[in-house]
Specification:
270 residues; Rossmann fold; six-stranded parallel beta sheet; globular
Length: 270
């Protein structure tokens, strides 16, 4: 009955943590492609091929349902995977859907025309690849009108977080927020469009100001997954064990993940 959670590195552990709290009885298999992180600077074909390989490994681990807890993979690979690659008895879901649902206050199956929503000026902080894909803007446009999205590619931030250099990460966040504000001085909402970024949410909030609503994905994804599994219980796979898999050095990844989650996590080679 396992569910797979995939990320290019450790950022998806924010989603893993939220899902494990929301669904404590469901085994979770986490796959971190640490050997090839970060994805945010790779081209779309490279991201697609790496993501497919990771998803296949999670299927082998008994996970018929896989969450792409990676915005770059969701932006650059998911649509292509769903259109031509995923078998009928498997599901691969991204992290965009719950966020768009929350921002537009409408369910994903609602195909009514776009309408005005509660936000007007939205700041998007994401990796260069996610920004280049314009996936957030495209999905928002299907559901909302009158929303101005200003995107800021946060170069270097994922690397700093993965390296555990929080001093550099904080400086980068402040710099990227300053750059965004030069383009959009008064956003009323902000999207942390990378699953690494919730680890810096307090820094983002302080730099943006208390009046800006900051949307972070982990809890939204967990709640959406819980609802999905209630409606589709047959998508729970046959896997029975919680595991942490990595393409990187298991010892180094385990140590860094333990710092992330503040409890011991043991990765094994994928």
């Amino acid at each position: 009955m396992a569910v797979g959670i995939f990320d290019s590195g450790l950022g998806g552990l924010t989603v893993w943590d939220a899902v494990s709290k929301q669904l404590p009885d469901v085994p979770l298999v986490y796959f971190g492609d640490n050997a090839h992180a970060p994805y945010g600077v790779r081209d779309a074909d490279d991201v697609y091929n790496l993501t497919c390989a990771a998803v296949e490994r999670l299927w082998d681990a008994g996970c018929d349902l896989v969450i792409l807890a990676c915005n770059t993979a969701s932006a650059a690979a998911l649509r292509r995977m769903q259109e031509s690659w995923i078998p009928r008895d498997k599901r691969v879901l991204g992290v965009f859907v719950p966020l768009i649902e929350a921002m537009t206050e409408r369910q994903w199956g609602d195909n009514s025309p776009p309408r005005e929503v509660g936000v007007r000026h939205v700041a998007l902080f994401a990796t260069p690849s996610t920004v280049a894909s314009r996936a957030f803007q495209r999905e928002l446009a299907f559901r909302a009108i009158g929303v101005d999205v200003e995107a800021q590619a946060c170069g270097g931030l994922v690397d700093a977080i993965e390296d555990g250099d929080m001093i550099l990460a904080e400086a980068l966040v402040r710099g990227h927020v300053d750059a965004l504000k030069r383009k959009m001085p008064e956003p009323d909402a902000a999207i942390l469009g990378c699953t690494h970024y919730p680890l810096m949410q307090e820094v983002f909030q302080a730099a943006l100001g208390g009046d800006v609503q900051v949307y972070s994905q982990a809890n939204l994804v967990a709640a959406s997954l819980s609802d999905y599994l209630k409606r589709h219980p047959n998508m729970l796979g046959k896997g029975q064990d919680t595991m942490f898999l990595t393409t990187g050095d298991p010892r180094k990844v385990s140590d860094r993940a333990t710092q992330f989650l503040r409890r011991r996590v043991e990765f094994i080679s994928a």
